[in-house]
Amino acid sequence: MELVSIPQNPAPLGATVDALEIPRRFRKPIRVRYAHWPSGLKERHGTVCIFPGRSEYIEKYFEVVGDLRRRGFYVVAIDWRGQGGSTRLARNPLKGHVRSFDDYQTDVSRLMSEVVLPDCPPPYYVLAHSMGGAIALKAATMRGSWFERMVLSAPMIRVRGLPVSDAFTANATALVSAVGLGRLAVPGGMRVYRQTQIFDGNILTSDAERFARNLSVLRLRRSSPWGRRPSAGCAPR
């Protein structure tokens, strides 16, 4: 396991990078990549766990890692199963399929028990974006939750603007999954990785420099030992 470092986005020094081995019945274990860094100061203020969003990866948060370390925090970041440098569960690596959203709680529990609690100082905080925010909120409801505080950016708690009710959406998606269509790509989603993505007209970011930087990371990652299978919908944000 390694981190992809480029001049425009250098990996913060002092990283420990490895993977959690999560067993499955009759199949190879799932490998969930993580990285953690010590505080950049002698004074310690606890540990921040970074929970990325859908299709994101650890390298995208290098700036954030550096900022937090300079403020005296240990930092831990994870690639959820199905994306980043972690195991894919579908033949097409762009789908980022998972059998159940609850599986992410297994990733959280293993990260905490095997990495954060043994190696990182309390108190423990979460900084999460989008899908990571939904995972963090679920973790907060678990008995004996580890986290003192959470900061959530655009947590993925519902889909806005649908012409039908949330209940109808939940029942429809459950039915689609039950009849065996759960592995199909979302209509309009990326079916193949595009290295020629353009900044003009995108609705996710107004920062052309970071857009280009993230795309450079993805291009290099495709040629790295673990990076030939990029995460689902890996358009830079």
Automatic annotation (TrEMBL):
Domain of life: Bacteria
Domain Serine aminopeptidase S33: 43-163
Keyword vocabulary terms for this entry: Hydrolase
GO molecular function per UniProt: hydrolase activity
Pfam family, one: Hydrolase_4
TM ranges: none
E.C. numbers: 3.1.1.-
Keyword Zinc-finger: no
InterPro entries: AB_hydrolase_fold, Hydrolase_4, MAG_DAG_Lipase
PANTHER family attached to this UniProt entry: PHOSPHOLIPASE-RELATED
UniProt-recorded name of the protein: Phospholipase YtpA
